[in-house]
Design brief:
Transferase(Phosphotransferase), domain 1; globular; Recoverin, domain 1; single chain; 16 helices; three-stranded antiparallel β-sheet; alpha+beta
């Protein structure tokens, strides 16, 4: 295992953090570092996860985590609160297939999550050693994970980053879902890299924009991507590139004979681009995925309407109630260039971008105004979020920002009477654009 010195910002090996002694660095990502630590009180190993978003913060010589720049402080603090909210939520679970949080605490001007240390391998490694497992084996693996995911969804919480790396297979073969992505999603507007907040192939379109409507169907798309990786033996195509040319159905169709038709159709159902045509909850998808027949009569009818393995995929309509598709297309030139280098995809997306740019639009804020907007909205949102649930109600907005409350329904994408920080930021941006128009 690599020493901590090879990981920028990692705590020194053998250093003490309360009763925990740092033994190894298990992994480091864009939003934190996970250590193998020894609980010196109980003389047992634990996994210790530290919140440290590399694009916003760094470790100072005294060991504390500090924002890299003044403009990053609000975003760092916001993500820290979401990290703690994630820890509090997970600590309530006692499910054999969801990572168990033993405790959490704040130190070094950041936060830590103490979890059970599991022995085994990530599913990504398991599939490298055992590619394209039998259908029965995959069902036995996925069923308990779906039970755990249903328990998470019942609390109103989402995983948001399901992928083979985040499914851990214990030494006895039992799977466990790890590394929830709440903090990454909270910081989506503050970081420069899309790859830091989502995983291409496993993230549906709604995760490419703060305006996308996320729900249980978002996690089910990712779970479908995991099964696609298992049966096709390669990562699923990215959601953005699928808009212009979809090869997903053909990949699954090639697996006919090795896997049942019902199983393949259920996987494709979960990977439907339009979130309204995906299974809406775990129970609905589980029936289709695990039963010998495709599903109940109602689900069978829905599957037949929306899924055609190997056939030409249905093109998504460009509708105003899908604003995040337009947003995804605007960033997709960069995304496709970085991830795939596919010239045909880049040209197609450039065409889409040009068409969108020809449409009339409000006066655009300058880069300096955008930066100020990011800083101010993070602070304003935090001060208005009275119950610290990560959302603002119409009453909270009306009480603090009466002038923009009239636009609340315009940005409340799912109509639930609450808006996220990204939606609040859009509310503020609308106000700024109106001011610029009047000035012009």
């Amino acid at each position: 295992m690599p020493a901590a010195a090879f990981f920028r910002n990692a705590l020194p090996l053998r250093s003490m953090l309360q009763e925990y002694r740092i033994e190894q660095v298990l992994g480091a990502g864009g939003f934190g570092i996970t250590y193998l630590a020894c609980d010196t009180n109980l003389d047992k190993n634990v996994a210790l996860k530290e919140y440290l978003p590399g694009e916003l913060a760094m470790r100072s010589p005294d060991g504390k985590v500090v924002a890299q720049a003044t403009g990053h402080e609000a975003g760092y603090r916001w993500g820290l609160e979401r990290f703690l909210q994630e820890a509090r939520t997970l600590a309530k679970f006692s499910h054999p297939h969801i990572v168990r949080v033993l405790r959490y605490f704040e130190a070094n001007a950041t936060a830590y999550m103490v979890m059970d240390y599991e022995k085994g391998d990530p599913l990504k490694v398991v599939l490298q050693h055992d590619p394209q497992p039998p259908e029965a084996k995959l069902k036995a693996l996925i069923a308990p994970l779906l039970d755990g995911l249903a328990a998470v969804h019942a609390t109103g919480f989402l995983h948001r980053d399901i992928k083979p790396d985040n499914i851990f297979v214990r030494a006895d073969g039992r799977p466990v879902l790890i590394d929830f992505g709440a903090a990454r999603q909270a910081l989506g507007g503050e970081t420069r890299s899309l790859t830091a907040i989502l995983t291409p192939g496993y993230a549906p379109l709604e995760q490419y924009s703060g305006e996308g409507k996320q729900g249980p169907w978002t996690d089910l798309y990712a779970m479908g991507g995991v099964l696609y990786r298992a049966v096709v033996d390669k990562n699923p195509p990215d959601a953005v590139t699928r808009i212009r040319g979809d090869t997903l159905g053909a990949g699954l169709a090639a697996m006919r004979g090795k896997y049942s038709e019902a199983f393949l159709r259920a996987i494709e159902w979960a990977l439907t681009l339009d979130e309204k045509k995906r299974p809406q909850n775990v129970a609905q998808w589980k029936v289709a995925l695990l039963s010998e027949k495709t599903a109940t009569a109602a689900a069978e009818e829905e599957i037949q309407k929306t899924l055609r393995i190997g056939a030409e995929p249905e093109k998504l309509r460009r509708r105003r109630r899908w604003p995040y598709v337009a947003g995804a297309l605007l960033v997709a030139v960069l995304v496709a260039s970085l991830w795939y280098g596919n010239q045909a995809v880049r040209q197609a997306l450039e065409t889409e971008k040009a068409q969108l740019q020809r449409e009339p639009r409000a006066a655009a804020p300058t880069p300096e105004q955008e930066q100020r907007l990011l800083r101010e909205t993070a602070t304003e949102f935090k001060s208005a979020d009275a119950n610290r649930d990560g959302f603002l109600s119409l009453e909270e907005v009306r009480g603090r920002f009466p002038l923009i409350a009239r636009e609340f329904q315009r940005v409340d994408a799912d109509g639930d009477g609450k808006i996220s920080m990204q939606e609040f930021r859009r509310l503020r941006r609308l106000q700024l654009e109106k001011r610029l128009q009047k000035r012009d």
